[in-house]
Amino acid sequence: MMDPLSEVFSLINIRGARCTRFEASGRWSYRFPAKPAVKFGAVLAGDCWIDFGEGQRHQLAAGDCFLLANAPSYFLANDDHVLSDDGMSAFDWAQSDVARHEGNDTVLIAGTFSFEESDADLLLDSLPTFLLIPSRNASATVVRSTLAILDIEIKGTQIGAAVLTDRLVDILLVQVLRAALIQDDGDSLGWISALADPRIGRAIGLMHRDAAYPWSLETLAASVAMSRSAFSKRFKSLVGLAPLDYLLRWRMRLARNALRRGSTVATVASKVGYSSESAFGHAFKRIYGIAPRRYWRSVEP
């Protein structure tokens, strides 16, 4: 039986962009544009800082790993007195996954995850703009092992490197989220924190395992031994959605996945708890902006 995070990852369409390696020596500063996605970075050697402006500067050292979610533009640098270059145009990214500035005293690797717009809110809205997993974190050892293999594949030319890189990046995302939960001081990871919350996480698990059940606020609250008001307040504070709104969105994700696999609209409607195609159709269109029958035709083989 899958846990809620694994279930979500099996349904949302995560696409990993290519991974890149940056090597630098001497004095340097590069600026990078805003990115409406989840991006990871890791320092393999040396040190530098990442600066979002307005006093939001974070020192980075070897072994540190970080996530950026819906990040604004930022600078990577090791010297305040160097005029910043455009990190996207200063190197020939079209020809190489490795960028070099003089030497390799400092080495970083990075990659980007992108999602369908309808899926993005689950992770993008849950994560802070900048999430650092420092090398001293107990979980960083596991992350470093994955990073070491990933670095070999980025630099190498062996067959299957692209496939292996994609898989490693997926693994890395889960490892970093795990590490973040361990070091989290409360509820700052939103929906991710909700999965680790004993009661709210159990309620999410119940909805995931039996999405067709006629859940109500009362039955969900009772299943985790909370009052309706306390449960509703806690759920929304962590997840950002009311419990039944979350249930609706989860059902529609299941429905969309089933339609993609070729199931008929009537079958899908019943599978996710709707007694009529009409009611299901209204719910599906509310979330995805298209009627399920039209969606089904668009993905028919």
Structural commentary:
The chain has twelve helices and twelve strands. The chain is α+β, with helices and mostly antiparallel strands. It has two domains: 180 residues, Sandwich (Jelly Rolls); 102 residues, Arc Repressor Mutant, subunit A (Orthogonal Bundle), CATH 1.10.10.60. The protein is elongated and about 65 Å long. The model has no long low-confidence stretch (mean pLDDT 86).
Alpha-carbon distance between the two ends:
30 Å
Q: Quick one: overall form?
A: elongated
How many structural domains? 2
Q: In CATH terms, what is the architecture of the largest domain?
A: Sandwich
Low-confidence stretches: none
What is the arithmetic mean of pLDDT?
A: 86
Class per helix and strand makeup:
alpha+beta
- The percent range for helix content is 40-55%
Q: Number of DSSP helices?
A: 12
Count of beta strands: 12
What do we call the CATH topology of the largest domain?
A: Jelly Rolls
Can you say what the CATH homologous superfamily of the largest domain is? Regulatory protein AraC
The largest pleated sheet is described as: 7 strands, mixed
The CATH top-level class label of the largest domain: Mainly Beta
> What order do the helices and strands follow?
HEEEEEEEEEEEHEHHHHHHHHHH
What integer value in Å does the Rg equal?
22 Å
Strand content: 15-25%
Short description:
A hairpin with a 5-residue loop joins β5 and β6 (57-61). This protein has two domains: 4-183, Sandwich (Jelly Rolls); 198-299, Homeodomain-like (Arc Repressor Mutant, subunit A, Orthogonal Bundle). The strands form two sheets. Strands 1, 2, 4, 7, 10, 11 and 12 form a seven-stranded mixed β-sheet that branches. Strands 6-5-8-3-9 form a five-stranded mixed β-sheet, with no helix packed on it.
